[in-house]
Amino acid sequence: MTPKQIVSELDRYIIGQFQAKKAVAIALRNRYRRSKLTVTDREEITPKNIILKGPTGVGKTEIARRLAKLVKAPFLKVEATKYTEVGYVGRDVESMIRDLVEVSIRLVKDERFKEVETRAFEKAVDRLSEIMLKKADGLPEGISKIDLRNELSKHNLDQMQVEISVADNPKPVELQPGVGEINLGSIFGDILPKKTKKRTVTVAEALKIFASEESEKLIDLDSVETEAVHRAENDGIIFIDEMDKIAGKSSQNGPDVSREGVQRDILPIVEGCTVSTKYGNVKTDYILFIASGAFHVSKVSDLIPELQGRFPVLVDLDSLGVNDFVKILTVPANAITDQYKKLLAVDNIDLQFTDDGIREIANVAFDQNNTLEDIGARRLQSIMEHIVEDISYDIDEEGEKKVILIDKAYVENNFRTESRNLKKYVL
Ligand SMILES: Nc1ncnc2c1ncn2[C@@H]1O[C@H](COP(=O)(O)OP(=O)(O)OP(=O)(O)O)[C@@H](O)[C@H]1O
Ligand SMILES: [Mg+2]
């Protein structure tokens, strides 16, 4: 996708914030450009990492979430706060690289699975027909194997019950909360005989189970792993959210040594180093990092300088105004007003928003952000919840269809007066 296409795709969900979208889109396109160069040229070109900075609730995390769905590249979103300095109990920052590789493995595996899908399904049909012919409960007398396979492939028998044996995977055991889990089965898997258990399932389900077992056999895991590591190294994107929470000098905030420690630990990873994973070594030089945070209490300049230097692109996100709120309420696919409409439609309530009603909600949100605390678009959620609270509560068991119009007057009555009163108290 061209940068413009990426931006317009993001436009479907995120209102405004053009600069942030643009920066991200350019960075993505640069990955592609780099991939077209000769190997020697490629080595010299490292990604221009980005910091997205802006008040709370203006779309930073939302951009990351939408981006993740958009890009076909291995994409990992992490919170900076979940890491602790090496040597302390907790997750070390290198684990983000290991997690990225896992994402990449899943991505490549899924692609390979798609390639072998038809063959895997044929094999599954084959296996299941063998089993069903041996125990022909409910099958027509003397049905031939070919006929049975035919019926299975056409999904004509999907609802029938069959007994099959499936692998009995032991549940992973969590050793220490938060640190990670270990799958005893995968350690002893090669030593212990594979355990199976009998299960009665529908034909549809049996085909699914067999097809997934067969596709595992059809793909070459070694090449999946090589490819996945390669993709993580060259196309990987790590979005580090809440970066501001690890900024701030330890002296200002008491004995908070670990924050700066985490920054120091992140440094080599962003700078380019080699992290060993269970799929082999991963070079981090070409992974794109996007950091984000409000940087309200601590500033970008509170990050250790070496780290700042590794994020050359700094984008400020705008705080949101009334017009933005109007759009956020209505434009995005599955916008918040649509969500409430759909929810209440279940109880036979037809919620209708007029244009001036929407605008009034936006006005109230903007007012409250100014007088109380600026929490950005999250304010809309609390206001909407307040507006529909009574509607939501006052339903009858077998209510007949009710149309409720949310117009300016409705919002004012249900809300404005109260927020004015509230304002009085605040002032
Ligand atoms: N520009 C926007 N366009 C559409 N929706 C938005 C926008 N900004 C915020 N929202 C909505 O508000 C919610 C909160 O936004 P988001 O999680 O992106 O905040 P944030 O910028 O990451 O804030 P924080 O600094 O507190 O993490 C999102 O779920 C999203 O639905
Ligand atoms: Mg956020």
Describe this structure in words.
By secondary structure, the chain is an alpha/beta fold. The chain folds into three domains: 3-103 and 234-316, P-loop containing nucleotide triphosphate hydrolases (Rossmann fold), CATH 3.40.50; 115-224, no CATH class; 322-416, Helicase, Ruva Protein, domain 3, CATH 1.10.8. The protein is built from 16 helices and 13 strands. The chain has helices at 3-11, 18-35, 39-44, 60-70, 94-134, 145-153, 184-188, 203-218, 221-235, 257-271, 305-309, 322-330, 336-345, 355-371, 378-393, 408-426, and strands spanning 50-53, 75-79, 161-167, 173-176, 180-182, 196-202, 237-241, 274-277, 280-283, 288-293, 313-316, 349-353, 402-406. It has a five-stranded parallel sheet with strand order 2-7-10-1-11, with helices on both faces. Strands 3-6 form a two-stranded antiparallel sheet. A two-stranded antiparallel sheet has the order 4-5. Strand 4 (173-176) and strand 5 (180-182) form a beta hairpin. It is flat, with a radius of gyration of 27 Å. Adenosine-5'-triphosphate is lined by residues 14-17, 56-62, 294, 328, 332, 376-378.
